Amino acid sequence: MSAPPKTRGDIAVNAACEFGLTTVLLFGVVTTVRWLADPLSPLAIANPRILFTVAGLVVAVLIAALMYSPPGRRSGGHMHAGVSVFVWLNGRLPGRAVAPYVVAQLAGSLVGTALARLVWGPEVARLGYAAVHPRPSLGSDGLVLAETLPLLVVFAAVTACLRRPAWMRFVPIVIGVGVGLSIALLASVSGASINPSRQFGPALLSGVTGELWIYLLVPIAAPALVALVARSTPRATSPAPAR
Q1: Number of H helices, E strands in the chain
Q2: What is the pLDDT of residue 114?
Q3: What is the C-alpha separation between 222 and 80, in angstroms, rounded?
Q4: What is the pLDDT of residue 5?
Q5: Which ranges of the chain have pLDDT less than 50?
């Protein structure tokens, strides 16, 4: 995890990093969908289970790589409003930095998606700008549950890492693996967005905004819940040495 920004200049630079990182993330996500999910693509994967597994692996590697990159180390590599709120509640981000981070992430979501459309052409629009969709029979309650559960598990694991300084360097891997597994297992159910930035740009550009409020709010509420529970739970202490 990065050191908390201390000045307005630090926050501005870190927010710029978040914008760039999220732009790259969404460009990569939309590019992955364009080449793996388009039936006309030479790289298309017809089997949905294999498709989501491969896409999850690609996204997992991309997220971890961005978090470990110099801009990711500078800002923390959040790319996710829920992560920024979670880090703030853990005392590792000033409250005044949360809004600039989130605005930068959402702007990066739009720009990254639009850039993919510019680079790859009308195929991106035909694929709905890679906006995710829940299973029609899932319903709003089911969508909330399906998006909440993986986030609770991932951020519980992140909390465990943050409580052990030697494990903190593994946080990008934990998040990447968690997101990748969520895509592989739940993409055909909820869409497995689990990140406001993942759905924001694609939904706005495609006009698919029916469940957007769920895809935006749940990934913020779930990490916040984990952080608040962790704050109320005393940390385990090592037993006193025998005398």
Answers
A1: 10, 0
A2: 98
A3: 12
A4: 82
A5: 237-243
Interaxial angle between packed helices 8-37 and 95-120, expressed in degrees from 0 to 180 and rounded to the nearest 10 = 30
Residue 141 tokens read as: 């309650």
**What pLDDT does residue 237 have?**
46
HSE at residue 117, side-chain half, CA atoms within 13 A, is 18
What does the pLDDT read at residue 41?
96
Q: What pLDDT shows up at residue 236? A: 52
Amino acid letter, 209: T
Q: Do the beta carbons of residue 80 and residue 197 sit within 8 Å? A: yes
Residues 194, 147: Cα–Cα separation, whole Å: 6
What single letter denotes the amino acid at residue 119?
Answer: V
As a whole number of angstroms, the distance between CA 111 and CA 113 comes to 5
Residue type present at position 233: T
pTM: 0.93
Specify the DSSP element, H or E, that contains 114. Answer: helix 95-120
Domains and CATH numbers, the chain: 8-232 (1.20.1080.10)
69, 156, 176, 185 from 181: Cα distances, Å: 22, 15, 9, 6
Sequence-distant (6+) residues with CB within 8 A of 137 are: none
| Chain centroid, CA 119 distance in Å | 23
